[in-house]
Design goal:
Structural class: alpha+beta
Low-confidence stretches: 354-362, 463-476
Length: about 475
């Protein structure tokens, strides 16, 4: 059993601690602040719930007052409207209560929680770590094998986009408060507002640091009010009384230059912080924490696979950063088309041409009638992959159209399926040929995904099935 210390009890730190305890390690979790506390990140994407359920924390959202979101008011790249989600898959929560519940679950999992406490000294040698913790009861000395940094955004790391700051404040709900979450593209900033459980409304103004400094007013609160007054959807709040202090924090997307080593790992925002436009920071933090736990478990229990584990974690962070940077750039570009301010133009730089034609539509007729083959750009190789408890090298599929190697889709190993791909068969025939490994419905879903990504391609209508005699790279 290894001794692990985690610094920071946000969602990433708590989930990492829970998972490491489940894997049989002796875990201590150190948190500086008292809970509950106000915390940004109150809008959760649909993927958060299954991630929490994976560590027995599925009730945390309900404990945090989770309320489904069926619509968002938006004013972005056209007239004001409402973006509807009939399934109401996303939700709004009280982040302070979510963090507190996850900490309770960590305690129940056997994690030793030190709160309120902070690290005042740390040293590392060949045998592990020595730390001194400052607690209300006096200094505590801790010695262990592994250290996890889950301290969140610190303004450190390599910037993945232009410098950005988020000014935010809470307000008491009133008759002029928007009843739904709002997102708006302004002239030189964008605005986000969200009604919270407990009668509060949170607003954020995301802009260049220079814009916040130049706003009229001597105090941060006055400058925030000046910027909010420029919003069409949230300007009514600019004259209300703030509930608590106004805050401002670095919101520049960043990736750690040193995210992992043989005896340490950075987790959540300490490893990778996304542009706030993604609205998926909590989901990615928890997802990253689960991957970090498997990486750390490999480093501690299978040191001979340490190089593989280190490469996996670094590469997964890089791929996630690249994917979100491309998405954010494209989203900013839709608003930048009608907004000449530097804020928009520098964030839209490098966006793909929106006029490029889309790929071929995938429908039932194509799945049944058109022969398919493995793309000549598809390759099968070996790469570090995430397992249930350890990182190991596994057969993977790579293609320029996908972000990094893929080992599994829908829980099914992809490389073995492509290795037995019947060239020239229709996708429906291919799915049926995989029947001894994958049921028909998930097989068709996998094929649709591979077609969409370009891993396999449909033959032109006039080609027929002659290509079936030619082996693709997956079969070689």
């Amino acid at each position: 059993m290894s001794r692990v210390l985690v610094i920071g009890a946000g969602p990433a730190g708590s989930v990492f601690a829970i998972r490491m305890a489940m894997l049989g390690h002796e875990v201590t979790l150190v948190e500086r602040a008292a809970f509950p506390r106000r915390r940004l990140g109150e809008a959760l994407t649909p993927g958060v719930r299954p991630l929490l359920e994976a560590v027995g924390a599925g009730d945390a959202i309900a404990h945090a007052g989770g309320r489904p979101v069926a619509a968002i008011r938006q004013l972005w790249d056209g007239p004001e409207g409402r973006r509807l989600d009939p399934a109401a898959a996303g939700c709004i929560i009280d982040r302070g209560r979510l963090d507190a519940r996850l900490l309770e679950i960590a305690r129940a999992a056997g994690v030793v929680v030190r709160q309120t406490a902070s690290v005042v000294a740390r040293t590392a040698d060949a045998t592990g770590w020595r730390l001194v913790l400052s607690t209300a009861q006096g200094p505590v000395h801790w010695r262990g094998d592994f250290l996890a940094d889950a301290t969140g955004r610190t303004g450190q790391g390599i910037a993945q986009g232009p410098r950005t700051i988020a000014a935010h404040a809470y307000w008491r709900l009133g008759v002029d408060t928007p009843p739904e979450p709002c997102i708006e593209a302004g002239a030189q900033a964008w605005f986000w507002g969200v009604p919270l459980p407990g009668g509060l409304y949170n607003t954020l103004v995301i802009c260049r640091p220079e814009t916040l400094r130049a706003a009229r007013g001597t105090t941060l609160q006055a400058r925030l009010r000046t910027l909010l007054a420029q919003s069409r959807l949230l300007r009514g709040l600019s004259g209300r009384t703030c509930d608590g202090p106004v805050g401002a924090r670095d919101a520049t997307p960043r990736i750690s230059a040193d995210p992992v080593g043989p005896r340490f790992i950075r987790v959540g925002d300490a490893a990778l912080s996304l542009d706030p436009i993604s609205s998926s920071g909590v989901q990615k933090a928890i997802q990253g924490a689960l991957a970090a736990a498997v990486t750390a478990n490999t480093l501690l229990r299978r040191p001979e696979a340490g190089t593989t584990a280190l490469a996996f974690y670094r590469d997964s962070l890089r791929r996630t950063a690249d994917r979100h940077r491309r998405w954010a750039t494209a989203h900013y570009a839709t608003a930048a088309a009608t907004r000449p301010d530097r804020f928009w133009q520098e964030r839209a730089a490098g966006a793909p041409d929106a006029s490029s034609p889309p790929g071929p539509a995938l429908d039932a007729q194509l799945m049944r009638m058109r022969p398919a083959r493995v793309s000549p750009l598809t390759r099968i190789g070996i790469a570090p992959c995430l397992g249930a408890e350890f990182v190991s090298e596994q057969p993977v599929v790579t293609h320029p159209g996908i972000d990094g190697p893929i080992a599994y889709l829908g829980g099914h190993a992809i490389a073995p399926l492509l290795a037995r791909f019947p060239q020239g068969a229709t996708p429906l025939e291919v799915a049926r040929s995989w029947g001894d490994r994958v049921p028909l419905k998930p097989a068709l879903a996998i094929l649709a995904r591979l077609l969409d990504d370009g891993v396999i391609v449909l033959e032109p209508p006039e080609t027929g099935t002659d290509m079936g005699a030619q082996p693709g790279p997956a079969a070689q």
